[in-house]
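Dear colleague,

Thank you for sharing your sequence with our group. We've completed the structure prediction you requested, and as agreed, I am returning the results in plain text so they can be pasted directly into your records. Please verify that the sequence below matches your submission; if there's any discrepancy, let me know and we will rerun it promptly.
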Amino acid sequence: MNWIKISCILCMFGCFKEFRPSESFVTDYLTGEWKNFTAEKVNDEIYPVATYSNLAMLILVFLITDFVRYKPIIILCGISGIITFLMIILGKTVLIMQIMEFFYGLFFSTEVAYYTYIYAKVDKKHYQEVTGHTKAATLFGRSMSGIVAQLTTSFDVLNYHQLNFITFSACCCATIWSFALPSVKQSIYFHRTSISDEEQGKGALDYHSRNSSSSQQSPSNDKNIKCCSSARSRMPLFHKVKNAYALLWKHFLQAYTNYPVVKWSLWWALATCGYMQVIAFIQLLWQTGVESGDKIYNGAVDFIYAIVGAVTVFCIGKVKLNWTLLGDTALSFFSLLEGAVLVGCSYSENIWLLYLGYIIFGVIYHTMVTVASFEVAKYISEDSYGLIFGVNTFFALLTQSLLMIVVVHVLKLDIRQQFFVYGSYFLVLALVYIVIGIINVVQHYRSGAGFHFWVSKDDKSSSTSDASNELPKRDSK
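Please find the predicted structure tokens below.
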């Protein structure tokens, strides 16, 4: 099937998956007349379960995703969404809501299949395009979700409870649509049919040489590739798993022994931790700024946030800047701005300032995490995109779980105190990257490289080739 058709089918799934209008008002729904939970119960006993569930399932789901070849996990993503919103419609007790949050965490952990399926299905030369397609699809679905939620509630077409039926229907559509995805015959680690990877090829050749009755192999490269592919298809499960984990470990070391990858991935993981914590509890903070009888515009805010984020992400991909030099400064400045916004929100009781702060915070995060993702991509093997995405997300969730345990369960801070802590967290992150940036600038100055803030086409191609040439050097060691 044509790669564009595959991308379109996957993007339709992404749109349906992200079309969840009930989420714009989920806190008001849980604390309102339909469920009657207190804000403290939602904050302390219900919401944290999704984070712990996501953390517990992510690595397992990532490995199973590659082993079962993606499509079953994408279908599971849709099914877990169906269970989540069916339970939120029918559930009445805290225990049911906690079970619902478990499936909600599973729903998010299975998203790794959505973001990595395309790498196993299309040619490497289309990776950048299809990555943009999948990100755009999720932002489009989220923006449509926000505007539908706002219009239907503002004009009293639907209430918060009825919005859940739209979300439930969208999850059903996503699940049905996922069956249209073409099956994956090969995967990146457990079911490789190509031997473009040197180490993986050696594993297949070694097994073939131990078990083949032929005494000599042909020197032809085409015959070697055919022989290795055939050998891998006949390999028992144990050898497939062994070779898969060898390649996983190779890609992991190859990536995380590279300084730029570590630097950008560290910010990626830590910023994602703070971002997920903020979006999980932001509606509880908004409730403190709303007077009884006031109109709530959470859906409109989600719409603006998604649209502005999509535009800035698109623009940042077109601007050619020397992120090697400017990266640390940008990360420290925007982390400082995010921290200042969150600290300001922790003191503000004006709902419009809280809405504005959330939009600014979210747009900055999505813009800089996009920069981090394509900067990391410069220094890693194309086959390991999914692995790095999974590992960075795992460390983000691990940090988020620790932060939640301390803030919510140990210190038992109220919602405004929590956001003061989250703001301080980003201020500390900014301080770390200010120090890294100063060291980077001093080293750059001493090397005599000069300060070129804009990257020309020649510079870009040169830096890309230098980055790609690093990989064999590390392998040879």
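Summary note from our side: DSSP finds 18 helices and no strands in the chain.

Kind regards,
the structure core
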